[in-house]
Each structure stands twice: as C-alpha cells, then as structure tokens.
Design a protein that fits this description.
binds cobalt (II) ion, Cyclin A, domain 1, 21 helices, alpha/beta, 660 residues
C-alpha cells in the first residue's frame, strides 16, 4: 500500500485533450519569484516576464508565484522598479491564473517585525493591487505573528495559505524538537486559524522522500485543508520527495520552468508532468506548450541573467546541505561574508560554530530572516570572539530575538547569551512573552509625515515605511529628483551577446593579457628610437636613469643620493582584532573607530564634538542585512565623523576619530 498511483491509460495525445485524471496534482509555478530569487539573486525584471506571461496563463497552473519574498526589496533597491507596479502589469497579461505571494507574516517583505498598522496597510494594498493567495510563514513558526496579516487577508476575501517551516536537528525528521508530532500540531493550529491551504515549506531542501511520505500521510489524516509542498532542489532530493509526497496524497506541489529549475531552485515541471502522465494524478498539462515557453526563456530571457548564476562548480547539487543541513542561500551568504572579510579559510570554524549558535538562540528554523541572524552572528563569533569571551559582537537582530521581538523560539534561548545580549538593550533587559507586535508602537503615521514631500500615495508611503533608506532613494528616482545610476539599469540582449563573443575570444586564446604597469615620470635623458621588428614599426622611448655607465673611463659620476626615508605607512587595525590593540592615528592625536567589516552606515548616534564613553554606540553598520552597533574604542571627544547614513564602507575604513 505504498502507492495510490495508478496508470489508467497508456495511449493518449500527451500534448492536450487527454482524459482528465480523477485527482490531478495541482502545480504552482515559482519561476517568476522563487526561481529567479534562487538562481539569479532575485534580479528578474518585469519586462522579462511579459514575453511568457500570456502563455504561462494557458498552462493550467493552480497559481503563479509572482511577488513577495525578496522581490520587493531587490526591485526598488537594484532594479529601479516599483514593486507594486509589477503586480498590476502582470495582471494585465495573466487574467485566469491566480497570483501568489510569499509573505513573511509580521515581517511582511522585510527583515523585522513591523507594527500592526503597517502590516494591515501592506496586506490591504497587496490585495488591492491584485494579489490572490497569501502564502504566509513565520521564521519561528510562531503563529501569533500571523494574527494581524491573516485578519487582513480574510477581510480582503483572499486565500490564506499557512506555512510550516520545515526544520530539523537530526539527519532525518525526528528528535526532540522537529518530529512528526511537531508538524501535526502546527498543521492543526493553522487549520484552527482558518487556513485555506497548508504548506510545508522546505526552504533548504532537507526533506527526505520517505519522511515526506510519512509526513503527508499523517497530515492528510489529521487536517482538512489542501496540502502543499514547497521543497528546494539544493540537496538533490526534491524530485524524489515530490513523488513520495504525491503518493502520500499531497494536493499541490511547487515547480519551476526547467531553465529556472534545479540548483538551489526547485524541481522542473516537465519531468513531473511526464512522470504522472496517464495516471490518476496526471497534471493534464500540455507538454508542447511548456516546451514553447522554455524556448522563449532560453532565447530571449536567460542570456540576460546567466552572469548571475553561480556556476563555478560542475555539480548542481550542494553536498554541504546533506552534510551540514545548512540552507543553500545561507551558505552562499556565509561564504560571501567571509570572502569580504578576507577570512574564507575560517569556513570550517563557521560550520562548527553554526549549530552551537543555533542551539543558543533556541534551535530556531533557518529561513529568512533567522538564517541571516544565525549566520551573521556565527561569523561574528568566529571572527571577533576572544579566548574566554563568547558573543563579543552581538548584532542588533540577535538582541531583538533575545528580547522576544521575533516570537517564541522552539526551545528556550541560552540564558547566559540572552542576558549578555540584553545588557543595556533599549527596550529593556527583561524579555517579553507576549505577541511581539504588541510592544511595537504604530509606525505608519510617522513614516507618512517623514516622506510626505516625496510620496504620492499609500503604496509609496509603505515602500518608505518598510525600507526607509533605499525606499526614499527609489522615490527620488521614481519622481525624477535624482538621476538613476547606471548600475540599476537593465542589461540588454546585446550586452549579453557582446560578453559571449568576448568570452569565446578568450577561450580561443585570442585575447592578450595587458600587464598593468605604472609609467614613471620621464626625465631629461629621454631619447626616441624608431625600431623595426620583423617589418613591424615601433616608436620606442628610452631614458637613461643612471647607474654605472657602460663606458666611463673619463667621467666619474657622482654617487646617487640615497632615497629619502619613506613615512611609515599607517596600518589601521580592526578594533576587535584578536592580535592588535586599537591603532592611534597621529594627526593631532586620537583613536580611530575602524570598520570591522564592510557594509552600509544605517545610523549615526553621535555627532562631532560629543563626549563619549568607551563602549557607547557611535554608528550602526549594516552588514549582510544585520545591524552592528559600533562602539567607541576609548572615552573622549569625537573629533571627526567621516560618514553619514547610506554611506558604504570597506573593512578597515576609519569611521571617526576620538580625541582624548
Ligand atoms: Co523557497
């Protein structure tokens, strides 16, 4: 009884008009959201979705995921696109298939919990702009964080899909925390909240096929709403996991069109359509139509994005996921972060530290934003902890988590870490136990007041409320108050073609490497020669720069003066370095505050001339989406602050100087 799948027909026109299956597997396509988010850093542009939009509407997908997740952030930050406009534009081409978005519950499409008034307005505007299905998840599976948005989804009469983030602490489903009982209990909670469907969200591709079978059998027997599986391919298991989940009775699965499938993305739709062909769970999809859509993707769209694909490895499977249960996206973040800090050699220490940090922080699932919170803190610990002192540089987000601002963790947070994190924490040193948003003061009116000169409607205001720095910059581009920088402009097919030709030349050995040399200033001894080599003419300039002459029997050259001693280079040392004390800069005295990592300044707490005590926060540096409070290395008076909010800094940049 391992399989309910029956082959009902062996002869059929597999492209269309074949007899409908009794219980077809429903499919949600993720190409236009999770597909390019997984493979192309969420850089997909609306103009590159339009060529396939009408055809994709014909396939018969249960829904198309078109919005949410990281799209809102990247669109306004990197693509100069109004995120709200994408929904409206795509709706003009896709009229039949419902749209789905990924909503991070009270985090909306950002990385922190927003106040209830912002959450209400956001859901209301997403629905009004055309969103139909709200796939909602909370990184901690704390469904108190669903309360506000679900009210809004229901009020707008839209589909509420509740997610359970799939997590594990053992190589297979089980253990003390994330076992079958845990998932069944979570599904019941969602059903009680009025979920129109329930999704198990396996963001790291950790779910093994036979665990999927056990899980979906149990869920099918326990709850009524349709069941949906979202499983990333990262580890390579997802197509097998899909099939076992289908055998166990899952109603809906997630796939991508094949050019956007596999690697850290999702299984492709086409092999699944063929695998189920003629069975009682046949999708009914027209394979010729899918092929037609793929051709457009391959020829017209993918060439513009290929350069974003990480294809440095031959394997499309990330073996580290199987070894460390680290989500693919998190892993690439960790690697990038270490590379930027010139510490890639510490990756093994990071892998060893990661489970310790996760356990200290309450064994939380690793999904946006908790994967970044745990990942960045792990890197901070590996780089900055000193013997005898752990958690030397705690990010603002870890402090928020310890305070309870993200919700209830799966197991209690390590009390020592919690106490250290909350020492001097602005909201208070005693953690909360209530629904997190209850302690958040309304934010919308304040944001509206701040942006009133730029924003023209509530959509603009929400963009600013969610992303104050980059949102404001986008609104300036949108209304022509600031020139749009070239790096946010689209890449054309011609750009891609030129690059391809260049690469082909390089591979054929027809590109000559130019060795970069600095040209010294030429002196009075410069002489010009006309030189012929093999019939080719060169103008050559030669300068005699001294040294013992070849023929010098008569004239004795005076000895060349010794070079003037060079000023010793000022080497800035990172404040938190294990080996070096804070460096002093010898321009009138003072101790520099040095950037311990590259990032963007998001807060300036002090101004020039302020008296500060050692340990007091001067600047907030955002690195890998986490905020780090940079404290005064010594007490004194701030002589100079070199930066403002929005400025990017490199590692070891001098951010300010404190005079004794
Ligand atoms: Co996903």
């Amino acid at each position: 009884m391992s399989s309910d799948i029956l082959v009902e027909s062996t002869k059929m026109d597999y492209s269309k008009d074949r007899p409908a299956a009794k219980n077809p597997v429903k499919v949600m396509d993720l190409t236009l959201r999770d597909g390019h988010q997984s493979l192309f850093a969420t850089r997909g542009r609306t103009e590159d979705m339009i060529p396939v939009a009408e055809l994709m509407d014909e396939v018969g997908f249960w829904a198309l995921e078109t919005w949410g997740g990281a799209t809102f952030d990247t669109m306004h930050r990197f693509l100069n696109e109004d995120p709200w406009e994408r929904i409206r534009t795509l709706k003009r081409y896709i009229k039949k298939t419902p749209f789905s978005m990924l909503l991070r519950a009270q985090n909306l499409v950002g990385y922190r919990n927003y106040a209830d008034d912002v959450a209400e307005a956001f859901v209301d505007r997403a629905a009004a702009n055309g969103m139909d299905i709200f796939r909602t998840f909370d990184a901690l599976n704390d469904y108190r964080n669903f309360e506000t948005v679900v009210k809004g989804i229901k009020k707008a009469d839209k589909h509420f899909q509740g997610c359970i983030c799939y997590s594990m602490t053992e190589p297979r489903m089980g253990g003390d925390v994330y076992n079958l009982d845990y998932y069944v209990a979570k599904a019941k909670e969602l059903e009680a909240m009025g979920a129109d469907s329930i999704c198990v969200k396996d963001m790291a591709g950790l779910m093994a096929p036979y665990d999927a079978f056990t899980l979906f059998k149990a869920l099918k027997e326990t709850v009524k709403p349709p069941l949906h599986l979202h499983s990333h391919f990262t580890s390579g298991m997802a197509p097998m996991t899909h099939l076992k989940a289908i055998e166990a009775g899952v109603d809906i699965v997630d796939t991508c069109m094949s050019p956007y499938a596999y690697r850290t993305s999702h299984p492709a739709v086409e092999p699944m359509v063929m695998a189920l062909l003629g069975t009682n769970r046949d999708t009914g999809f027209d394979i010729n139509l899918l092929a037609q859509i793929n051709e457009i993707f391959e020829k017209e769209i993918v060439p513009k994005y290929r350069h974003l694909l990480d294809d440095t490895k031959m394997s499309i499977i990330d073996i580290n996921v199987l070894l460390h249960q680290t989500p693919g996206g998190m892993l690439s973040n960790l690697v990038n972060q270490l590379r930027e800090m010139d510490a890639l050699d510490k990756i093994d220490q990071v892998f060893a530290e990661l489970p310790r940090v996760r356990k200290d922080l309450g064994q939380i699932p690793l999904v946006t934003p908790t994967s970044q919170i745990v990942g960045t803190q792990t890197v901070n610990n590996v780089l900055f902890d000193e013997d005898g002192e752990r958690y030397k540089m705690i990010t603002g987000q870890v402090k928020d988590l310890c305070y309870g601002l993200y919700g209830k963790t799966a197991v209690p947070i390590n009390p020592e870490v919690q106490k250290k994190a909350l020492k001097g924490y602005q909201r208070g040193e005693k953690p909360i136990t209530c629904r997190p948003a209850e302690v958040l003061a309304p934010e919308l009116e304040k944001a509206q007041e701040e942006i009133k000169d730029l924003a023209k409607d509530l959509d603009d205001e929400l963009l600013y409320a969610l992303y104050p720095v980059t949102g404001k910059r986008f609104l300036k581009w949108k209304y022509g108050l600031e020139e749009v920088p070239p790096e946010v402009k689209p890449r054309t097919l011609e750009d891609a073609k030129a690059e391809k030709e260049w690469l082909a030349k390089a591979k054929a050995g027809k590109l000559v490497e130019r060795i970069e040399k600095t040209i010294p200033d030429m002196g009075d001894n410069l002489r010009k020669f006309n030189v012929l080599v093999d019939g080719e003419y060169f103008a050559v300039e030669v300068e005699d720069t001294g040294g013992p002459p070849a023929f010098s029997s008569v004239t004795q050259f005076p000895p060349r003066p010794a070079p003037a001693p060079q000023a010793p280079a000022r080497v800035a040392q990172p404040v938190a370095s294990k080996t070096a004390p804070p460096a002093t800069v010898d321009d009138g005295g003072g101790t520099p505050l040095i950037a311990p990592m590259p990032g963007m300044i998001v807060g300036v707490e002090k101004k020039e001339g302020d008296q500060v005590n050692q340990g007091e926060t001067i600047l907030i540096l955002e690195a890998m989406k986490m905020e780090n409070a940079l404290a005064a290395p010594v007490s004194g008076i701030i002589k100079k602050i070199n930066l403002g909010v929005g400025d990017h800094v490199a590692k070891n940049d001098i951010l300010c100087v404190i005079a004794p």
